[in-house]
Write a structure and sequence with these properties.
This protein is mostly helical and about 140 residues long. It is built from five helices and no strands. It has one domain. It is globular, with a radius of gyration of 15 Å.
Length: about 140
């Protein structure tokens, strides 16, 4: 049996929920996903756990920390099936995060067509870490 998924200890440096991450780091489709977790639990359009963009198999702690984790439909389902570690239900962080996926997406997409120097630096770190090739 696979171990239940856990959250990263803190939101990673490129987390789209972090207020201090530059705009334009991620593809538009990644920002659009954030909105699926807004609204009341029964209104959320995704039952999928939001994984960390570091692709390390951990849950995005920015996603967990941007609101009460038990308000997230995917967390409730994951806990009920045992695919999430029980510690995710109590996850909190002191890292400043956007209060909703819509806020995070709006910020992230603002400079998506022309990312600034700071965003380019974050993008280059992600490319290097993930072993991607620049187009």
């Amino acid at each position: 049996m696979t171990e239940p998924a856990k959250a990263r200890p803190t939101p990673c440096a490129s987390c789209p929920y972090r207020k201090n991450v530059p705009s334009g780091v991620w593809h538009e489709s990644e920002y659009e996903k954030l909105k699926e977790y807004d609204g009341e639990t029964h209104e959320q359009t995704s039952m999928n756990v939001f994984a960390c963009h570091q692709a390390d198999g951990q849950i995005c702690s920015g996603w967990l920390g941007h609101r009460d984790p038990l308000d997230l439909l995917a967390v409730r389902i994951g806990l009920s099936y045992g695919t999430l570690d029980g510690t995710v239900a109590e996850y909190t962080t002191t890292v400043p995060l956007f209060g909703s996926g819509a806020e995070a997406a709006e910020h992230g997409m603002r400079e998506i067509e022309n990312p600034g120097e700071k965003a380019a630096g974050v993008i280059n770190k992600i490319i290097k870490k993930q072993g991607f090739q620049k187009p």
